[in-house]
Write a structure and sequence with these properties.
Blueprint: H1 2-36, H2 46-52, E1 61-65, E2 68-75, E3 78-83, H3 93-99
Antiparallel strand pairs: 1-2, 2-3
Length: 105
């Protein structure tokens, strides 16, 4: 029984290592696209943003603008401000986009 548990733990560790390697490859690929293909920015999906803001935790809220709250987060090992557009202000999307500045290093 203990040998079987040890085998399961070994499998879990190997899967975790593979996941980390895959994520690192994805990060490098994204950085290469930005640098070599002149992609001006990287798009993040909602799951990545939720992780970065701890599911939009109020403890990470750093402000409130006319278009919605602003949260502190970390994306690609960089501290960022994440603005959330209030759904009832869709007509203000153009102004919201003008406020958003993207810095790529």
């Amino acid at each position: 029984m203990s040998q079987r548990l040890a085998e399961i733990e070994t499998q879990k560790r190997k899967l975790a290592e593979l996941k980390v390697k895959h994520e690192e490859k994805q990060r490098i690929k994204t950085l290469q696209e930005v640098v070599y293909n002149s992609v001006p920015y990287r798009r993040y999906n909602i799951k990545e943003i939720q992780v970065a803001t701890n599911a939009f935790d109020n403890a990470l809220k750093i402000g409130e603008g006319g278009y919605g709250p602003v949260f502190k987060g970390v994306l690609d090992h960089t501290v960022v401000a994440i603005k959330v557009l209030k759904p009832d202000l869709a007509h203000g999307e153009k102004q919201f986009q003008q406020e958003v500045t993207i810095f790529v290093q």
